[in-house]
Amino acid sequence: MGKADKYNYGVVLDAGSSGTRVYVYRWLKNSLAKESDLLAHKLPELETKDKWTKKVHPGVSTFGETPELVGSDHLKGLINHALNHIPSAAVPNTPIFLLATAGMRLLPDQQRENVLDSICSYLKTETDFFLPDCDQHIQVIPGETEGLYGWVAANYLLGGFDSPTEHDHGKDHHTYGFLDMGGASAQIAFAPNATEADKHANDLTLMRLRTVDGQPQEYKVFVTTWLGFGVNEARKRYVTKLLEEYAIEGLLEIPDPCLPRDAKLTVDGKLATETDLEQQHLLGTGQFDECMRRTLPLLEKNKPCLDEPCLINGQHVPAIDFDVNHFVGISEYWHTTHEIFEMAHKDKSYDFGTYQKRVSEFCNTEWQFIEAGIDDKIYGKKVDEQTAYEVCFKASWLINILHDGIGVPRVGLEHEADTGHNGTKEVIEAGKEKGYLEPFQAVNKIKSTEISWTMGKMVLYASADVPAIEENALPVGFGSNEPGVLVPADFQLPGGGRLQPGSMSVPDQTLTGKITDTILSSDSPHRIPGFLFFLLIMFIGFFYLRRRRAANGTTAFLRRTNSTSMLSKINRLFGRRSGSKDYDRALEDGNTRLYDPSEFELGGMDSDDEESEGKLAGGYVSPTSRRKQGGPPAGRLTPDFMDRRGLLVRTESRERFDGIGGRKSRNASMSPTRRDR
């Protein structure tokens, strides 16, 4: 049996602000996985390798003015790399997704749409990947979606889903919290304890998965994003305030405690040349304690909290029980704590006392000695000058976010204060014994696999492709956590994921929808004969109708009926628009069959500016600004969707404003779609 017959494959392109990375995943076909006692009761087992991954710079957002080049100049190498690891026979059945994040949100609407359209055109014309609908497979996603996918990936790799008894944290809790930080934003996702889950049920997201043997899994997760709180955006705000404070005429050297001693940078964050020193620039003083003090106000904890409790920027977050909520942090949480300070201890737990001491010593080192250390590779092969001069600010920001922002206990601080020695060795041993049971641990790989939100996306996809064990099983995906509602109106199916025959796709699926699901499903062994037979019945019925109408004097009308109108009638019978994509995945394409658009109202949209106060380019507003408009906080899904340009359009069901219970439900969309073309 060849690999194409044995495995399913999937490709995800993570289109970030600094570059695009391609990930290739594969998993055993379900018929084979069910034969294994080790795999049958677990979620589909995804496999990926470092060599299957490739990243190119810069990001797709840099093609805003030249969208026609994004395929040949940017995507081509990534696609060719993916094809090197996928059997050619499997390519037509391999779904491909390009999901863009913060960088694309900053583009003007028309440029964003042009780039997405060009990507769609390139992938459709130059590849044979399974791409039924660009609106579902090529889109700009909000930070909440990243956070949710990341939470799935982390718990999938750690084993919280498949082995709950082995990961019992107490209080019947077996999942892990997830923290992610990039350049523009930061995300948090976790399942609150039972008390907080009941108290804040309306703020949670309902998540459903399915194991290889068809058994459902269900979780309720809180997820939100802090836009403008990534390390790069936070640094911009910090420098702006620094320049305002030292806005003295003629002063060229601005003292910066968040730079190593004597390091000189331009105000836009580059090493200063002799020419740059003739104008205003930053001079490092290496005072880490002062750096911590100056970065603390950037958390915006003084902003009004309209929905208690809040953590950062006035955004609502249910209370975190660190007895059971154990967090793993990826991206900047890993790079900032390990690239310089923990090079030799890849798996150690995060120790606040040890970490802060090491950062303080590093930042107080003269820049010339740090440069010499970089040349000698004492910090590792990957550490360059930019990594070194940025780490003091990043470390202070990370520490403030973790402990003063999120409230993670300062593990290691009391121990070091009592003993006066560096506790690295003890912490390493404790980390090995406790696994991931500390309140926080920075990670990059688990079981030799990189934690990436792209894996969470593909886990959902593979899980949705498993046949349900029950005839009316609930679908895989996520949506609003509405008590008593099995399939909420905003329930999002994994992009392109096929609903199996017999599963409960939507509560109000029509008879014609069920017929077409059976006839057109690729899983049906009689798909082609059945379809031809169906067309024959349609033709006979149409011929009979024509005879009847001719007898009633409507012959002239029927003569005007051509093949186009015939196709239109068939499309209407199927519930499809003219020009729609492959129907076997259409129930997920745009969610147009989940609800009547007349049930929703359009809300206002904000401008394209991405500011620390919470506006997200393209009209997406922060939880704070939403509340000011009478809207919901982040962390909960609503029928909010992103149009084909990536523009988030806020809509709310009229049912939520009917006065039931005297309140208005709070939701926040997490899986936008693009408008139908």
Automatic annotation (TrEMBL):
Q: Which GO terms describe its cellular component?
A: Golgi apparatus; membrane
Name the catalytic site residues: 146 (proton acceptor)
Name of protein: Golgi apyrase
Q: Which GO terms describe its molecular function?
A: apyrase activity; ATP binding; GDP phosphatase activity; ribonucleoside triphosphate phosphatase activity; UDP phosphatase activity
EC identifiers of the protein: 3.6.1.5
Pfam families, from UniProt?
Answer: GDA1_CD39 (PF01150)
Annotated signal peptide: none
Classification via PROSITE patterns: GDA1_CD39_NTPASE
Name the family the entry cites.
Belongs to the GDA1/CD39 NTPase family.
The membrane spanning regions, by residue number, are 528-545
Q: Which CDD domains match?
A: ASKHA_NBD_YND1-like
Q: Which residues form a coiled coil?
A: none
Q: Where is the composition biased (Basic and acidic residues)?
A: 641-658
PANTHER family per record:
ADENOSINE/GUANOSINE DIPHOSPHATASE, NUCLEOSIDE-DIPHOSPHATASE MIG-23
Gene3D superfamilies linked to this entry: 3.30.420.40, Exopolyphosphatase. Domain 2 (3.30.420.150)
UniProt entry tagged with the keyword Membrane? yes
The residue ranges flagged as biased composition, category Polar residues, are 667-677
Q: Which UniProt keywords apply?
A: ATP-binding, Hydrolase, Membrane, Nucleotide-binding, Transmembrane, Transmembrane helix
Which region ranges are annotated with the description Disordered?
597-677
Ligand binding (ATP): 183-187
